[in-house]
Design a protein that fits this description.
alpha/beta; Rossmann fold; 2 domains; 41% helix; 18% strand
Length: 453
């Protein structure tokens, strides 16, 4: 629990304040990091209202998690202000709990003791505290595992512990920072349904859900459109870095929600259309710039996945509507957008509105023998400024090659997403034999294909 971890004292007055004010509110919020300053959020106006589930939706790196932390008081904004229940926030918001994407459990504590961290700092008797801990464990379906340790739990169970710990504080606002991103697709879907149930119970204020007494709202960070539509009452769409509020959409899909319901699919399409209009798929929204030699930001997808998308397009006449492609690949729409944009960067596919088509280079790739495909990919990779920059750095390091950590530090200085870009680039380049490296010693050397094409 955030407040307990930071040693602040819980103020129950926050729970009794007027519901006329938003629980959290950002006004003209700016956040920048580093020197020279890198702008992460710009002029953000957002509010979390009592009695709602709010989703913040946007691409990786747009500042979603930074916005959540600012709203909770975990970081000081560079400009603007944060309000809590109508009052300027000083320090950590005492009515908020956070569920982290990385579980954040203490391995030496049992499930019961990890959940018990959530009641630290509350003015509860031992009996009331024990009862609340038990209720929260039961609420997330972990009764019987009270004395188990994190190493004995699956990923889904660990995240249930994190949710129970957050609920144990009986917060006004439950914040969830991409809580399903570390889980496999089946576990994520199960837990997503459980969170949906919790949101509905909090909204309906059911008497039997004593463990969520006091919970008024839920804020969830996500990059998955379907997840936002499934869970949220309102959806805030963020632009790419620097993050700005692109639009706020009221989710009119009726409850109970089903993924294949026409109203649900219509809302997904509406959101996607709004995102496309704001970001324009014809231009990769996370490219820092190429014409002047600045370095591209690469999505975290694999080369095999990119080729897979090109192959699906080829099998359907080399051109498909994005939503038809989504159904055919069965990818989450946000993931598919990253794959399409990666294909654009490599000039294997092109987009026109919602239409995705195979380029001449993509056709050449698919027409080549398996042994020759790497040559085509090597040629396309070396068109990227960031690939040329890495090749230059490795070449200058001599025969022994470049140290991966040193290269990452240098790239981060050039662009804010250098760590994730290098991770993707190394995987792509090793696939195409442009670079060679081993995780054991972290040394990067030039591959044979770097001299081809």
């Amino acid at each position: 629990m955030v407040s307990a971890q930071l040693g602040t004292t819980f103020n129950p007055e926050y729970l009794s304040m007027s519901i006329d004010h938003p629980i959290c509110e950002a006004r003209a919020l700016d956040v920048s990091f580093g020197s020279p300053a890198v702008e992460v959020l710009r002029g953000v106006d957002i509010e979390v209202r009592p009695g709602e589930t709010l989703a913040i939706l946007g691409p990786s790196g747009c500042g979603k998690s930074t916005l959540l932390r600012a709203l909770c008081g975990l970081l000081q904004p560079s400009g603007g202000e944060i309000l809590a229940n109508g009052t300027r926030l000083e320090g950590v918001h005492p009515g908020v709990s956070i569920v982290f994407q990385s579980f954040a459990l203490l391995p030496w504590l049992s499930v019961q003791d990890n959940v018990g961290l959530g009641v630290n700092g509350l003015d509860l008797t031992d009996e009331v505290a024990r009862r609340r801990i038990t209720e929260c464990i039961e609420l997330v379906g972990l009764d019987g595992f009270e004395h188990a340790f994190p190493k004995e739990l699956s990923g889904g169970m660990k995240q249930r512990v994190g949710i129970a710990r957050a609920l144990a504080r009986s917060p006004q606002l439950l914040c969830m920072d991409e809580p399903f991103s570390a889980l496999d697709v089946f576990t994520a879907e199960t837990l997503r349904s459980e969170v949906y149930r919790l949101c509905r119970e909090a909204d309906e204020d059911l008497d039997e859900s004593r463990a969520i007494e006091g919970l008024r709202s839920v804020l969830i960070i996500t990059h998955i459109i379907e997840e936002a539509v499934f869970l949220a009452d309102r959806i805030v769409v963020m632009s790419a870095r620097p993050g700005e509020v692109q639009c706020v959409i009221d989710n009119t899909v009726p409850h109970p929600r089903e993924y294949h319901d026409p109203a649900f699919e219509s809302m997904v399409r509406r959101l996607h259309t709004r995102i496309v209009e704001g970001e324009d798929l014809d231009e990769f929204d996370q490219v820092v710039g190429t014409a002047d030699g600045r370095l591209e930001v690469l999505p975290e997808v694999t080369m095999s996945e990119i080729i897979g998308v090109v192959e699906v397009l080829h099998d359907h006449g080399n051109s498909m509507d994005l939503f038809d492609l989504d159904e055919e690949t069965e990818e989450e729409l946000g993931r598919l957008l990253s794959l399409v944009k990666a294909g654009e960067l490599l000039d294997l596919v092109d987009t026109d509105g919602n239409r995705v088509s195979v380029t001449a280079a993509g056709t050449s790739l698919l027409g080549a023998e398996s042994s020759d495909r790497k040559d085509v990919l090597a040629s396309q990779l070396q068109r990227l400024n960031v690939m040329q920059w890495v090749i230059e750095q490795v070449s200058q390091s001599g025969e022994d090659g470049a140290d991966r950590e040193d290269l990452e530090v240098a790239l981060v200085r050039r662009q804010p997403h250098g760590a994730s870009t290098l991770h993707s680039l190394l995987a792509w380049a090793r696939f195409a034999e442009v670079l060679s490296w081993t995780a054991e010693d972290g040394t990067i050397t030039l591959g044979g294909a770097v001299y081809r094409g």
